[in-house]
Amino acid sequence: MTKLLFILQHTALLSIFLLSTYGLGARLVKSNKSIEHLGTGFIISLKLCCGMGIFITVLQFLGILENLKLWSVSTLLCVGLCFFILELKQNIKKQTIESSLKALQHKITQHPLSTTLVLVFLIITILKALAPPNAWDEVMYHLPHAREWANAGALTINKWLRYPYFPYNFDLLYAASLVFGYDVLPHLLHASAGMVTVLGLYGLGRSLFNHNVASLAAIIFISTINGLAQTAYVELGLTMFLFFGFICVYQGYWNGNFRFVLIGMFLIGLAVGTKYQSLFYIPLLAGIVLFKERKIKNYAALTVAFLLPCSYWYIRNYILTGNPVEPLAGTIFGYYSWNEFDMQLQIADLKRVADWPPPILWLSIIPLLFLKRFSLSTKAIAFFCIYGFITWYFTSHYSRYLIPVYPFMSLFAAQGIWMALHMIHIRTKQTNFKRIYLQRFTKNQKLKYAAYPVILIALLIFMPKTLSKIQADGASRGDFLKDKIYSYHIGVFLRAHPEYRLVQIGLESDLYYLPSGTIGDVFGEGRYQNLLGLSSSQLANKIKSFGANALLISNKRGGELITSQPEFNRYFTLVNSTDYAQLYSVK
Questions:
Q1: How far is CA 82 from CA 19, 29, 89, 568, in A?
Q2: Which residue has the higher pLDDT, 457 or 376?
Q3: Interatomic CA distance for residues 225 and 231, integer angstroms
Q4: How far apart are CA 191 and CA 453, in angstroms?
């Protein structure tokens, strides 16, 4: 019962956020013939995406003004909900809601199997997102930065955390969640960005190909992001903004609707303010604008729309460090928070994790071999895929950085599967694939309704393991996290003993559960390289120079090297220990 209430509570919180963002987005996105062919689902998802963008932009200004408080975030939510109610009333008058519901019901009854499969994936993805924060990057810096902003009510620069000068647009949503005291909600916010992209991908796929390809593309994309949807990372937010941004820019220019070009620029600006990797897409965007735009005044409007949500991070960095993309490009702008060794270490780490996208996405190559058969819109998407893949290959080669291209790759992979099946049936001289399997299925009522138990069977298979990760109370949360976070129990001890100020070595992945201001990381001022080579007396003095009085070390990463020194016990006293970590006070 407790878990059910926990699930309902967080679902309600997410619903309030999505309704509010829909209301905000509806003010910006007006129905227009230039995107009507993409379907109701795409328009709804575009409004949600734009609403999230507006929400983030306002949060950014609130943070700059040091007013990222409970009252201001609550007011923003209420404003969005008021706009949603206004939009709802207008749609009721126009009878668009009734017609949309009828169209949705028709699609579900016409395509029960694909609908149930997509629904299964969505439900499982959302439930998996309800686990406590335990993924590496979210615990190391995403949530710690958000916590500092929530506590301070301002966009503080937290130098003891990794990447203090990164652009953090999407993380502002996590800060808003922590203002209310919910640290599982960021998982749902990140997952919701993926689900909004899925809805938009379905609309795009249906307009370019057909329902079956669109549904398959949605399933493929969900399967490729399933792991990320359980985290408070930013890749799904970045993907959402780039996906809708480039579609709006393209559709706006090729259908003569400058308003949608502006919306697209705003969304791409949000992406650039979310992660540095999105800067690689700027040449492609610039090429489109230069090719199509001829009016000088339009360039000014496009520049404002683009810079509004992202310029703060880069201007701040340039003023404070002399480098707009700190800590990158140190050889050009000079090193500030990092040094040359840190940069080399980061590059080496990228090479270590270099990999390829999931095998199913390689099927996207099939349609690319037959591009001449497709529409101009499809060719434009193919060009985006090729551009994104090439820049990714020659920069990071880390699959997580290719995720913004995954929606389009999923669409082409789905079309590739469809084409392959169609060719198989032609070669075996079978009747048309669609007529055999789809029309027969949709006309047979027994088969149609027999598809619905598929969702029940799938949920029964995956539900126990998924529900086991949901921790609805403090005791079960602690039991879950003690196996995920190496220093979790020491973190609990430290919350009860705030007199200890930490330097940690080898436990940067635990920082969200350690006291604020805990120093120590692979990079930056408190880099491990500067600590591990010191004698016990030098280490004690170094810790004191940071204003700290305690040392937390990992038993797995460098701990023995430190504690095995002959004079270690002369300068340090054991305070607390677990199987994975040890806490020492400095004498």
A1: 10, 16, 11, 62
A2: 376
A3: 10
A4: 25
Tokens of 62: 């609130």
Count of CA atoms in the C-beta half-sphere (13 A) of 431: 7
Phi, psi (rounded to 5 degrees) for 273 = -85, 5
Q: Which of 377, 384, 383, 380 has the alpha carbon at shortest distance from 404?
A: 384
- The string of DSSP letters for 390-455 reads HHHHHHT--GGGGGGGHHHHHHHHHHHHHHHHHHHHHHTTPSPHIIIIIIHHHH-HHHHHHTTHHH
How far apart CA 387 and CA 281 sit, in angstroms, is 8
Closest by CA to 512, choosing from 68, 62, 162, is: 162
CA pair distance 231, 263, nearest whole angstrom: 28
Which of 106-110, 127-131, 416-420 has the least mean pLDDT?
106-110
pLDDT value of position 394: 94
- Predicted confidence band at 441 (pLDDT cuts at 50, 70, 90)? very low
Residue-wise pLDDT tens digits, 510-534: 999 999 999 999 999 899 999 988 9
For 378, left (φ over 0), alpha (ψ -120 to 50), or beta? alpha
Under a CB-based contact definition with an 8 Å cutoff, are residues 417 and 365 in contact? no
CA 356 to chain centre: 19
Mean of per-residue pLDDT scores for the chain: 90
Concatenated DSSP letters of 538-582: HHHHHHHHTT--EEEEETTTTHHHHHTSTTHHHHEEEEEE-SSEE
CB atoms within 10 A of CB 454: 16
pLDDT score of 114 more than 90: no
Helix ranges restricted to H, 255-324:
258-272, 282-292, 296-307, 311-321
Judged against a pLDDT cut of 50, whether residue 304 lies above it is answered with yes
Instruction: Say if residue 104's pLDDT is above 70.
Output: no
pLDDT band at 100 (very low <50, low <70, confident <90, very high): low
pLDDT at 442: 47
Contact (CB, 8 A) for 392 and 343: no
CA distance 160 to 523: 10
Q: What is the per-residue DSSP string for 365-399?
A: HHHHTTGGGS-HHHHHHHHHHHHHHHHHHHHT--G
Distance in angstroms (rounded) separating the CA atoms of residues 494 and 332: 42
Whether 214 contacts 201, CB under 8 Å = yes
Residue 579 and residue 550 in contact, taking contact as beta carbons nearer than 8 Å: no
Residue position matching structure tokens 């590059």: 347
Per-residue pLDDT tens for 130-148? 999 999 999 999 999 999 9
Instruction: Report CA 45 to chain centroid distance, whole Å.
Output: 16
Burial 177-206 (b: 16+ CB within 10 A, else e): bbbeebbbbbbbbbbbbbbbbbbbbbbbbb
At 186-225, the pLDDT tens digits run: 999 999 999 999 999 999 999 999 888 999 999 999 999 9
Q: Is the overall model pTM greater than 0.85, yes or no?
A: yes
Q: How far is CA 399 from the centre of its chain?
A: 14
**Burial label, 10 (beta-carbon count in 10 A; 0-12, 13-18, 19+):** buried
What local confidence, expressed as pLDDT, does residue 455 receive?
67
What are residue 308's phi and psi, to 5 degrees? -50, -50
